[in-house]
């Protein structure tokens, strides 16, 4: 058990289930086949509520959103049961390189994902972002660790505790995932993060991964990482960093023209019967293995 977790929560919670990951808002566990539980971190009630409300909005939408969001099964004020994915973009890209296991310093990029797959992911992610824009929201924390991959390598957007309305103040997450030159959430902030994710996928490294604090000033002054080609994806990366797309819908429309985008169309929306079955499983867990879940709160 990670030391910090033991300091915050009773040890029993971590003994019952496999710990997957921890973030600012919640700790994530695998509680059943295909089901992940995100459990509230102390002091993050507002962010947890925001994420729950965003998923409720996604569920109520008519017509439904594109199938590039993680499916929510059951939500409580302190716990969120959701679809469990086998991989994340972050772990996939890190597996493609040789790096220090502790510092994560990259020694060598061993391989890159196929161009067609990157184009598919670009189409899927931009489609999700454009849909959020259509209801005047942004995800607010775009980074590879918040992009999950299903068993067929389709991308799913997750983690909405930083979700915000277009025009809200951007608190200024550190580059390369957030622009130091845009202070209000909107198409500019989201496409900047999109461009950095695209660079990460096409080069195997985060933008300016080796620069440290210098990264902020470089991006602030418009000095972008060198792009080694005039390929369509490198050109798209630069266009996103320069905020050349007036809307995220424009970005999604462009990404839909990429050759690999045709594979995004094969993604199937989850059917209601499956969702109902998984929700029933979550309710059964709350009556059995997780009957005392509320007592795990500090």
Automatic annotation (TrEMBL):
Family annotation (SUPFAM superfamilies): Protein kinase-like (PK-like) (SSF56112)
A Gene Ontology molecular function term of the record: protein serine/threonine kinase activity
Domain of life assignment: Eukaryota
Protein name: Protein kinase domain-containing protein
Domain annotation Protein kinase: ranges: 14-275
InterPro entries: Kinase-like_dom_sf, Prot_kinase_dom, Ser/Thr_Kinases-Pseudokinases
Keywords: Kinase, Transferase
């Amino acid at each position: 058990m990670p030391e910090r977790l033991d300091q915050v929560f009773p040890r029993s919670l971590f003994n019952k289930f496999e710990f997957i990951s921890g973030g600012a808002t919640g700790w994530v566990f695998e509680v059943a086949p295909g089901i992940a539980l995100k459990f509230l971190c102390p002091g993050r009630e507002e962010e947890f509520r925001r994420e729950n409300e965003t998923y409720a909005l996604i569920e109520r939408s008519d017509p439904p959103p594109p199938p590039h969001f993680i499916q929510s099964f059951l939500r409580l004020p302190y716990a969120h049961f959701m679809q469990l994915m086998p991989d994340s973009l972050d772990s996939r890209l890190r597996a493609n390189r040789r790096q220090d296991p502790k510092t994560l310093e990259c020694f060598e990029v061993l391989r890159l994902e196929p161009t067609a797959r990157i184009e598919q992911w670009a189409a899927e992610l931009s489609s999700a972002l454009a849909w959020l824009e259509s209801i005047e929201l942004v995800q607010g924390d775009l980074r590879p660790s918040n992009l999950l991959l299903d068993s067929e390598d389709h991308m799913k957007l997750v983690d909405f505790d930083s979700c915000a309305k277009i025009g809200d103040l951007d608190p200024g997450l550190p580059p390369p995932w957030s622009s130091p030159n845009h202070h209000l959430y909107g198409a500019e902030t989201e496409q900047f993060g999109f461009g950095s994710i695209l660079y990460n996928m096409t080069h195997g490294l985060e933008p300016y991964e080796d620069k440290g604090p210098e990264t902020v000033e470089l991006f602030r002054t418009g000095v972008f990482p060198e792009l080694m080609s005039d390929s369509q994806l490198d050109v798209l990366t630069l266009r996103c960093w320069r905020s050349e797309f007036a809307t995220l819908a424009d970005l999604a429309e462009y990404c839909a023209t990429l050759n690999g985008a045709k594979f995004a169309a094969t993604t199937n929306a989850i059917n209601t019967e499956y969702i109902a079955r998984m929700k029933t499983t979550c309710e059964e867990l709350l009556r059995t293995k997780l009957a005392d879940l509320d007592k795990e709160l500090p």
